[in-house]
């Protein structure tokens, strides 16, 4: 009731322990606090908080317009509603290395279990679009070092994301991505998010090159094929995210329902697709609030 009973420190420790097991952890993207509860109910391992979703939620494109306060604030709202660890998208860290340091401490304060910092230039772009540019390796490493030095909880997971793969075509792109990933591990990254890998073989090459946990981004309509959790587990990936998928599903369904309202003037034919009132109340633990109230107040009218 009200919020998660697991502390941020416990969530971070749990994430570290699960990662050490070598199994693949599944992190669907929560597009709001309520959907984080659903992700937990359905038995997933963690909740991903996407920058693209956070921006889209405000009606903005994902081009680095959202601020640290907005991201940390929304992250806190989502993280506190679940017992699961949450990993958040910290984009480029919101500025220079000193800003990155502040970002990490804000995300720790927000109860987040870990984040990724990417090597794109500012302003950033979606990792699956063409025309991205990345900073040089020293600048990228400085961001990671600043992040690692700033954290107060050693279990806060600092993941380095590299977008360099998509900046060059063919096998050369993969080689430079591997070099960049190694440099970021040397800078202290706990895990690597190799963005926009094209094939399973590319993920496998990356797997063979570094021995920290690796994340696979299964975002739709992008550069990667959509591999199954089993395929990714089989090649030794450690975390898979479906960052924007639940928002895409919800927005797709909303669009179709609005069409039905236009066409038919009612939604009687779509009740099966809706989350039932009873399921919503169950998810927000309505009964527990009733019990709490009844222990405090007496609503009976005295005569
Ligand atoms: C993972 C990502 O950074 C995000 O913000 O969710 C995006 C997802 C997307 O735009 O599809 C990315 O891959 O850059
Ligand atoms: Mg992002």
Automatic annotation (TrEMBL):
Gene3D superfamilies, per database record: Phosphoenolpyruvate-binding domains
Pathways per UniProt: Organic acid metabolism; propanoate degradation
Keyword Lipid metabolism listed: no
Keywords: Lyase, Magnesium, Metal-binding
Reactions this protein catalyses: (2S,3R)-3-hydroxybutane-1,2,3-tricarboxylate = pyruvate + succinate
PROSITE patterns assigned: ISOCITRATE_LYASE (PS00161)
Annotated EC: 4.1.3.30
Gene Ontology MF terms in the entry: lyase activity
Domain of life: Bacteria
InterPro entries noted in UniProt: ICL/PEPM (IPR039556), Isocitrate_lyase_ph_CS (IPR018523), PrpB (IPR012695), Pyrv/PenolPyrv_kinase-like_dom (IPR015813), Pyrv_kinase-like_dom_sf (IPR040442)
Cofactor(s) this protein requires: Mg(2+)
Family named by the database record: Belongs to the isocitrate lyase/PEP mutase superfamily. Methylisocitrate lyase family.
Function text: Catalyzes the thermodynamically favored C-C bond cleavage of (2R,3S)-2-methylisocitrate to yield pyruvate and succinate.
Name of the protein: Methylisocitrate lyase
Organism from which the protein derives: Leucobacter iarius
Lineage: Bacteria, Bacillati, Actinomycetota, Actinomycetes, Micrococcales
């Amino acid at each position: 009731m009200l919020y998660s009973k697991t502390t941020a420190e416990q969530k971070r420790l749990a994430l570290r322990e699960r990662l050490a097991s070598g199994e693949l952890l599944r992190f669907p993207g929560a597009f709001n606090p309520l959907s984080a509860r659903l992700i937990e109910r359905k038995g997933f391992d963690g909740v991903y908080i996407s920058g693209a979703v956070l921006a889209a939620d405000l009606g903005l494109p994902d081009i680095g317009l959202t601020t640290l306060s907005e991201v940390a604030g929304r992250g806190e709202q989502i993280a506190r509603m679940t017992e699961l660890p949450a990993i958040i998208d910290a984009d480029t860290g919101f500025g220079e290395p000193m800003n990155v340091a502040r970002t990490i401490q804000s995300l720790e304060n927000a109860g987040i279990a870990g984040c990724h910092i990417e090597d794109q230039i500012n302003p950033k772009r979606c990792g699956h679009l063409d025309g991205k540019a990345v900073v040089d390796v020293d600048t990228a490493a400085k961001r990671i070092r600043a992040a690692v030095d700033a954290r107060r909880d050693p279990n806060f997971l600092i993941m380095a994301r590299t977008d360099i793969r998509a900046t060059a075509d063919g096998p050369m792109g993969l080689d430079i991505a591997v070099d960049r990933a190694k440099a970021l591990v040397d800078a202290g990254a706990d895990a690597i998010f190799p963005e926009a890998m094209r094939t399973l073989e590319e993920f496998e090459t990356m797997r063979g090159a570094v021995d920290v946990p690796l994340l696979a981004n299964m975002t739709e309509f992008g550069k990667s094929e959509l591999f199954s959790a089993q395929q990714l587990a089989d090649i030794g990936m450690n975390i898979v995210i479906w960052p924007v998928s639940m928002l895409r599903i919800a927005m797709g369904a909303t669009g179709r329902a609005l069409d039905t309202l236009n066409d038919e003037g009612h939604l009687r034919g779509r009740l099966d697709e809706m989350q039932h009132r009873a399921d919503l109340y169950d998810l927000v633990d309505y009964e527990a609030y009733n019990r709490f109230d009844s222990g405090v107040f007496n609503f009976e009218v005295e005569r």
